[in-house]
From TrEMBL:
PANTHER family, A to Z: 60 KDA LYSOPHOSPHOLIPASE, L-ASPARAGINASE
Protein's UniProt name: Asparaginase
A GO BP entry: asparagine metabolic process
CDD domains per record: L-asparaginase_II (cd08964)
One Pfam family in the UniProt entry: Asparaginase_C
Sequence similarity: Belongs to the asparaginase 1 family.
Positions of the Asparaginase/glutaminase C-terminal domain: 210-321
Taxonomic superkingdom: Bacteria
Record key words, sorted: Hydrolase
Catalytic residues, chain numbering: T14
Length: 339
């Protein structure tokens, strides 16, 4: 029986870290090293492996992700049934969403990593790698965009969050739940979702806009928001509850000359749009020009705003994109070559 071809690339992260003594662990293992340590992986797929970087997740940037997209596109165009990217878990909830925004293929693009380094008892890296490869190889994963697979659970990139600093079950999809699970070496989907149309990548020589993420807090005087609105190209404001801020911050939103996206700092649920009416409420802030993020959390809102600003879209389309992508409902499905 032939095995489906799957491409796998590593960027580094805890899954690749080794070390001893008091110096702490650091990324060092290659993609080939990782694959060789997973029992039965060769039976799951015909793997092609490469090492794109050896970095911690906290140090990844947009240039790394552009390189990943180029590699993944080349891989599926030359026959791979899917692609797997291995990286540090610190930034997976953001990097996977960036990849999903710009992935214009039907083949699955799966992101995975590990919560425990290889020298730790109960290291989860090998199991996560197997589950990720099995997910990428499965025809049922086609058309779902970028997926995050850890702890035998399959998440949509636009929903997943890291919810614990160190637990194996650190990743969850608040609100709508995971898409499926890997059991007996097969993917079982019970909550699939259609995709929104992917965005084109902006020209590589165009600097990525600077987008600030400002979280409001008790007794906030608004100084940080005012600074961000003056110095950055856009701001995501993570408000209380369904999108509230202290009344003193409301005028700062009115005065902002850059787009201000209103998200929630809670990590689950949608911003409101017409429930509360006091100064600093979501109705007040929207009337002052804030763009509601809906079900998109603040971190993913920052990724989306940065991508839209990089494309130079007008304010009307900014609002339309956030309204559609933050609605929680499925978007239009896309074909292999949609752009």
């Amino acid at each position: 029986m032939s095995r489906p071809p799957v491409a796998l690339a590593s960027l580094g992260g805890t899954i690749t870290m080794t070390g001893n003594g008091d110096g702490g662990v650091r990324p060092s293992l290659t993609a080939a090293d990782l694959v060789s340590a997973v029992p039965g992986l060769a039976d799951a797929a015909d793997l092609t492996v490469t090492t794109l970087a050896t970095s911690p997740g906290a140090s990844l940037g947009a240039a790394d992700l552009r390189r990943c997209l180029t590699w993944a596109c080349d891989s599926v165009r030359t026959g791979a049934a899917g692609a797997v990217i291995v990286q540090g878990t610190d930034t997976i909830e953001e990097t996977a969403y960036f990849l999903d925004l710009h992935w214009d293929r039907d083949e699955p693009l799966v992101v995975t990593g590990a919560m425990r380094n290889p020298a730790t008892p109960g290291a989860d890296g090998p199991a996560n790698l197997y589950a990720a490869v099995a997910t990428a190889a499965d025809p049922a994963s086609r058309g779902l965009g970028a997926l995050v697979v850890l702890n035998d659970t399959v998440h949509a990139a636009h929903r997943v969050r890291k919810t614990h600093t160190s637990a194996l079950q650190a990743f969850a999809s608040p609100g709508f739940g995971a898409l499926g699970h890997v059991a007996e070496r097969r993917v079982r989907y019970g909550n699939p979702v259609a995709r929104h149309r992917p965005l084109p990548l902006p020209p590589e020589d165009r600097p990525r806009p600077r987008v600030a993420l400002v979280e409001t807090c008790f007794d906030d005087d608004g100084g940080l928001l005012a600074y961000a609105a003056a110095e950055y190209d856009g701001v995501v404001l993570a408000g209380f509850g369904v999108g509230h801020v202290p009344a003193a911050l409301a005028e700062t939103v009115s005065a902002a000359r850059v787009p201000v996206v209103l998200a929630s700092r809670t990590g689950a649920g949608s911003t409101a749009s017409r429930t509360y009416g006091f100064p600093g409420s979501e109705r007040d802030l929207i009337a002052r020009g804030a763009i509601p993020a809906g079900f998109l959390d603040a971190r993913k809102s920052r990724v989306l705003l940065g991508s839209l600003l990089a494309l130079g879209v007008p304010e009307e389309r900014l609002r339309a994109e956030f309204a559609a992508r933050g609605a929680g409902a499925p978007g239009p499905t896309v074909g292999c070559e949609s752009g």
